[in-house]
Amino acid sequence: MNTEEILRANLNNEQYEAVVDESRHILCLACAGSGKSRTLAYKIAYLVSKGEAPEGIIAFTFTEKAAESIKRRVAEALRKFGYPENYIGAMFIGTLDSFCQKLLGDINAKYRQYDILDKNGLILFLMSRFRQIGLRHGEGRYFKENILPLVDAWQTMNNENIDLANIEQYDATLFNRLTKLGEILDRDGYMDFSFAIRLGVQELKRITDKANSCIAKFKHLLVDEYQDINPIQEDFIRTLASHLDMLLVVGDDDQSIYGWRGANVQNILTFNRRYSDVAVHRLLVNFRSTDAIVSGGNNFVQRTISLVRLSKEIKSHSDGNIQDLRKLWFDNRIEEAEWVAQRIESLIGTKYLEGINPDGTEKYRGLTYGDFAILLRSIRNSNGDNRDKQFTDALSKRGIPFKSSGEGGIFDRPYAICVQHSMELLREAGLPREEALEFFASNVLPVFPYANEAKFITILNKWHQNIHASTSAARRKVYPQEFLHDLIDVFNVRDFKDETALRDLGLFSKIILDVEKTYTSIDSSFRYAEMLNFIGNIAINSYELESIDYLVKGNSVDISTIHKVKGLEYPVVFVVDLIASRFPHKKATYNGKLPHELMVDAINRGAYGTRLEDEARLFYTAITRAERVLYLTGSTHHQDLKRACKRSTFIADYTSSKMREDKAFDDLAEKIEPQPRFDESEFPTDFSSVKSYLTCPYSYKLSTIYGYNAAVPELFGFGKTSHTILERMHQQFKDRAPSAEEVAEIVESTFMLKHVFPSNDPINRPGSYERAKWLIQRILMEYSQQYAADFGRLRQDEARFEISVKDALITGAIDLLLLEDLQRGITTADVIDFKSMETPEDVAAYDWRDMSVQVQLYSQAAKEVIGENVETGYIHTLKDNRRTAIPVDKQSVNNAIGVVEWAVRGILDSDFPMRACPKSCGVCDFRAMCAQKRQSFKNEALPPQINTPAGLKNLIAFEDDGGVTNEI
To answer: Where does the UvrD-like helicase C-terminal domain lie (predicted)?
Structure first.
């Protein structure tokens, strides 16, 4: 098939026209369920088919999960065009902020060692540098009037693209604090998402000669979910697009639901007035929902937001084999929840037309619990209670499995609470033994019945000394992640049959990791108390288990807020709690610390607040999650409300000729065997996580699924800063090796260890920090002399790649050395993986397996993605500047790919056995939460061997157990 035939076979007319349009600026209005992801994917594949270089293509998605989905669709489209799927690795498909991080790193490698902070991380950063930023204790309520308002002011200032200098005339104190915050973030090697994008805009605006800039290779930019772009993101898009050949934006103004955090729907409403040569395409066929649901949606938006939306009449593609549309009102919320649970129970196994098989026959399956969603405007009320309680109770009574974003609060269950309260015992110095023993008996044993009392006292004593010891001249390093591991070991969670405790404490580990990112140490009573304050005031309400639950509880009813299911779809949707006092939510406006004179534009467009049109768009987003069955429900009496409730106006505004109001549990079709809809291709993975599966699948489960983090090692960050300095050397010296003085200068300006304290007297009393810096300087001076020829080659540092391996995309980064001839172009390529270690004396006895697979995968990526024929692969150990050759012949590479395919299959099958053996368990970071048994794999197929410098080796997970006899 030629290009035209491929496009016609896979796209409808509207999608086709958008894909082949060659205008410079393209606006693609895509309603819910209209195939926008397919359109984006085929647009990218079409560009490649027209001869455009894959590395010239950028696609911004709203989330990383959305990026994974788009990548897989692009892989499918490329395959149909006859191109390697691995071209994806040459493109950039991801979030805008992650592109900014990459862009900044390409401009100056120092940014690659910056930590990117989310809101929780920024809160912790402010707490850890409270006085440096100009805040004072006792100056108002600590969190509510100091920390949180300043965090919001910083992020809003960046998102709204407000010049910091303009703040001074209105609020000098706020100006000084924000100025200091920016300086200290940069000094200490941190940035948050908003600041990363702002820095990216500044760098783009400095470019006057694209051909000699960091964006020289880019030609095409595609932006998904354009309706949710905020001002600084739009400034970045517009500035970048001014240097490019094409900008295509895709979105739906009717689904703009993030105005409360700064999204500007005007971006999409006024696109064709702000850009020249604009072509507009409308994808107005909803392939997801029935005609009744779609027509009701059309009636609703026309009635509620007609003047603040782009006009469009959406049509349905198919009604499928079942449909049901109702709005129902109940006397009380318990009755409402009971009906919802009964309706779910009555529909399980209903015959459902899923699609068309490759042979043209219809594909049916029976509905399962995972096909149902219960959506609420919000789950947590102002008192911190969960509004989903009646629904979870009703489902539990019938044995219906569910997952709830309200259930994501680990501090609603005893496991995290017990750990938190155990840590609270050490808030003050001088904990009496009797009090600790009483706490163990009354608080620990009821929650962790296998806990060890003697070890509990020993661990508390150890950490009491660590935290409250008198401050000496040299600061000590006290890391709370190690404390958490010690407590988990004491509580003996490894013997629990129910893994809820492990899951909850995995998220607690993430909270502690965020603390450790910003606090170099908690080595004083004050710093330790600050950590406890963060856990008790912020973390308790701001960390959720949602991503973990989606992996662990696959076939269960989703109970969620509407915001959290954006981009998802379900055969059956219940939009509940449709009462006037909750949905639409009452009107609100911006009330932050930034001067209102500078926030006029944001306030006028309703940003950082709530308006009726925002609520209407949220409701529209909720109803368009439904494929075939939609129920809108509400009730008069609620336990947490004193007055009787009235119906939401949205119920009245949503009309359809097929709307029912009866409560009958009628069958919609015959019943057949329930079969889950599980799109395994949506499971994201990367090589770093796959690598742990090859050693021990249970370790993968603990780290990747449950989220446990290792304790901070000595000289944490040494490898990262070594690589960063090496990359800066190659950025600055492309045709000659740097001198010793030039190396020293780069080391001095780039070296950064965030978890090691510099000496107060570095000349006379150098410490670990200074010794590490001198070591890196010596290593890189020797490297620049011994491998001077590397600087005469064209180098690609951290070239991203993605290899399509059956059901997953394996991501990574390649260090390449390319030999270029002026006449013949690039003649050879070497893959080099730099490690901050020494080559072992006995090369044959060393375990090269992980590193060999990595280099072999990278060599394959270099061949297919970058188009270079890799001749050799190396592990370069920096501490002794030696290179060890890794086999990269065809068979070795095929074995490596086979190993990864085997691991991906195991991950998708949830096959996570413990594979205990002395060698692995002795160095495992997660010994405290593992029973260290030898369990069998579900899959009896053996993976290939790995070809290493020491010969062919089995995976570590298949090594002899060394005497372990408890195989099960």
So the answer is: 291-567
